[in-house]
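Predict structure. Chain length: 133.
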Amino acid sequence: MDKVVKSDAEWRVQLSPEEFRVLRQAGTERPFTGEYVDTKTTGVYSCRACGAELFRSDTKFESHCGWPSFFEPSKSEAVTLIEDDSLGMRRVEVRCARCDSHLGHVFHGEGYATPTDDRYCINSVSLTLLPEK
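Prediction complete.
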């Protein structure tokens, strides 16, 4: 997988202001506002910035947290996990491994009935859903 490296100016041309704020500046969309929160469509979720495959619909689950939730990425090397101590709490940031865009955070051990007990809490604006035909 080739890394995608662009300047902020190049990303600003490609992304909408909201996409840039979330993907490149580690922002967060408001809960329950993203286009994929309640989506049940079967398909592949890719990075909106670079198109890399990140998650599959068969790992998406209802967490009722306000953002799309997945219990694992489609491939372990699809995402990079980074310790995040911002906002006075310890979290683990999830980034696209190909272009280093911010996707959201992952939480472990919350008691969800999923195979991993992980909740990848991902901003809809970070994703593009490619429906299965």
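Summary: Residues 8-131 form a domain with the Metal Binding Protein, Guanine Nucleotide Exchange Factor; Chain A fold (CATH 2.170.150.20).
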